[in-house]
Design brief:
Layout: E1 2-3, E2 6-7, H1 12-19, H2 23-40, E3 43-45, E4 54-56, E5 59-66, H3 68-92, H4 97-100, H5 106-110, E6 132-141, E7 144-151, H6 158-171, H7 187-197, E8 209-212, H8 221-231, E9 234-236, E10 241-244, E11 247-250, E12 257-258, E13 261-264, H9 287-292, E14 297-299, H10 316-324, E15 331-332, E16 336-337, H11 341-349, E17 354-358, E18 368-369, H12 375-387, E19 392-396, E20 402-407, E21 410-419, E22 421-424, E23 428-430, E24 435-439, E25 453-460, H13 479-482, H14 485-488
Parallel strand pairs: 5-25, 7-15, 8-9, 8-13, 13-14
Antiparallel strand pairs: 1-2, 3-4, 6-7, 6-22, 10-11, 11-12, 16-19, 17-18, 17-19, 20-21, 21-24, 22-23, 24-25
Protein name: Circularly permuted type 2 ATP-grasp protein
Organism: Plastoroseomonas hellenica
InterPro entries: ATP-dep_Glu-Cys_Ligase-2, CP_ATPgrasp_2, UCP005522
């Protein structure tokens, strides 16, 4: 919120609001938010800790604000990156030009456990592999963002982005009269339009879309149901679908109905017991046959995980140069691959300074933050790296930006990241904002909800605010503020 010269212009109104709001009033609003989220059933699941795994995701009342100019620069970089990732996927399952050119080691791709040979020689409808991407970025300077990781398989969290906005509009309608905030409520509509845009050519004019979920025991089940409801499509499980003559059908009370597009929230391994894990009870037998026959579209495409593998991540800037003939607009975090002898030697020598991650890890598990770890923990990870070097990467700890956050002791700075969501069909769409995740523990850099993190509403201003000292226009409510719940649902 503050720069060396004082309050940042984007936060001027928020700073005045906080100065005029008592801690008791903020505490009351926080309890109101908890009741609201509990009533709506906005939960996430944490496994392996005993007791009831369903928890409310912590929600912070103070929004994270991004200026319009800053957002526009970030959005251009996100679009560029996702275009390159899709071209990479089309290439490695096709001609493999980037491998033949020696820009990425062949074994790193073809020997990777998330590479799917079944996708070789097949181009999905519209040539799109990752229809829904979540690119995790951190702000490291006034106008500088770094990409932490790419999520090209089944990125989650967009329901929290939408519900956080809804909660803020209910709790603090007065704040929306002093800010022009870009709306996020069109995301479900734009997601549905994106999915329909990649339907196979053999489909009818209005393709039938379903959302395929593993079921109620999945950690993101709330989001699956939420998005299906918002889009007005069926949320189905594997047992609700079957394949006949290489066509996918949904079981209904009025008989089988053909399905044209499946927004799948099931990992590759469990998607089709004929093609992947034979013991899977979550998927649909024959689904990959129907997919390769061109009778159904899958979003995201099986095999898209090779584009967001942490061992592939260091090469994404090279993908941008190779496929687009452009310089990357967004920087990577410097990354050491422990499978390389020189990188491994550096990591082992400086492990107390680095962040070490599992190559195939997620959710903040299997990670070491060297500066905040004990000697014993560093020694444990040293042994792990020596035993299985290919399973680990390491990165320097970044000076992540902080934002004001309401904690038990009052308002304090806490580290954040941002996950914008990028939709790719016949065009690329980016909802202004995304999911801001906040590390609620003092000094923590881990923002994952499973590791004690929370979320914030992310405000992208429709206009850059005036410089410090200039008058702030009071030109009425933002479109986001006047958008009702029924309008957001498309009723």
């Amino acid at each position: 919120m503050h720069a060396a010269t004082g309050v940042r212009p984007a936060y001027a109104q928020i700073e005045r609001w906080l100065a005029g709001t008592s801690p008791e009033a903020l505490g009351l609003k926080r309890r109101e938010a908890e009741l609201l989220f509990r009533r709506l059933g906005i939960t996430f699941a944490v496994y392996g800790e005993g007791g009831d795994p369903e928890r409310l995701i912590p929600f912070d009342l103070i929004p994270r604000i991004i200026g319009r100019g800053e957002w526009d620069r970030l959005a251009r970089g996100l679009e560029q990156r996702v275009r390159a990732l899709n071209l990479f996927l089309q290439d490695v399952y096709g001609k493999r030009e980037i491998l033949r050119a020696g820009r990425i080691p062949e074994q790193l791709v073809l020997g990777n456990p998330v590479y799917r040979p079944i996708m070789e020689g097949f181009v999905p409808p519209a040539g799109v592999y990752t229809h829904v991407s979540g690119i995790d970025v951190v702000r490291t300077g006034p106008d500088e963002f770094h990409v932490l990781e790419d999520n090209c398989r089944t990125p989650s969290g967009v329901s929290y982005m939408l519900e956080n906005r809804e909660a803020m509009m209910r709790l603090f309608p007065e704040l929306f009269t002093t800010h022009r905030i870009a709306p996020v409520g069109r995301y479900p509509e734009e997601l549905l339009e994106t999915l329909k845009a990649v339907a196979p050519r053999t489909c009818p004019a209005d393709p039938r879309v379903v959302l395929l979920t593993p079921g109620a025991y999945n950690s993101a089940y709330y989001e699956h149901c939420f998005l299906a409801d918002e889009m007005g499509v069926e949320a189905v499980e594997g047992a609700d679908l079957f394949v006949r003559d290489d066509v996918v059908y949904m079981r209904t009370t009025t008989g089988p109905q053909r399905v044209d597009v499946i927004y799948r929230r099931i990992d590759d391994d469990y998607l089709d017991p004929e093609a992947f894990l034979p013991e899977s009870m979550l998927g649909v037998a024959g689904l990959m046959r129907a997919y390769r026959a061109g009778n159904v579209a899958l979003a995201n495409a099986p095999g898209a995980g090779i584009a967001d593998d942490k061992a592939i991540y260091p090469y994404v800037p090279e993908m941008v140069r190779f496929y687009l003939s452009e310089e990357p607009l967004l920087s990577n975090v410097p990354t050491y691959l422990c499978d390389r002898e020189a990188d491994r030697a550096y990591v082992l020598e400086h492990i107390h300074e680095l962040v070490v991650k599992l190559t195939h890890g997620s959710g903040g598990y299997g990670m070491l933050i060297g500066p905040h770890s004990t000697k014993a923990q560093c020694e444990e990870f040293t042994a792990r790296i020596k035993a299985k070097p290919a399973e680990y990467i390491a990165q320097p700890t970044l000076a992540l930006s902080t934002v004001p956050t309401l904690v038990e002791a009052g308002i304090a700075p806490r580290h954040v990241d941002l996950r914008p969501f990028i939709l790719t069909g016949k065009e690329v769409r980016i909802i202004p904002g995304g999911l801001t995740r906040v590390a609620l523990r003092d000094g923590s850099l881990v923002v994952n909800s499973s590791q004690g993190g929370g979320t914030k509403d992310t405000w992208v201003l429709q206009d850059d605010p005036p410089a410090a000292g200039a008058a702030v226009p009071q030109d009425g409510r933002t479109p986001a503020a006047t958008q009702s719940q029924s309008q957001r649902q498309g009723d």
